[in-house]
Amino acid sequence: MPINRRSLLAAASASLAMPALAVPARAQSGGTGPIRLIVPFAPGGSVDVLARLMAPHMAERLRQEVVVENRTGAAGLIAAENVVQSPANGTSLLVASGGQVTIAAALAPNLSFDPMRDLVPVTHLVDAPYIFSAGPSLRQPGLNEMIAETKARPRSITYASPGIGSVTHLMMEILNQETGAGFLHVPYRGTGQAMADLMSGRVDMTLGSVASVKPALDRRELRAIAAAGPVRLAQYPDVPTTTELGIPGMDVRVWIGLVARVGTPASAIARVDEVVRAVMALPALQARLEPLILVPVGEGPAAFGATLADDAARWKRVITRGNISLN
Question: What is the span of the domain harbouring residue 156?
Answer without folding.
Answer: 144-227
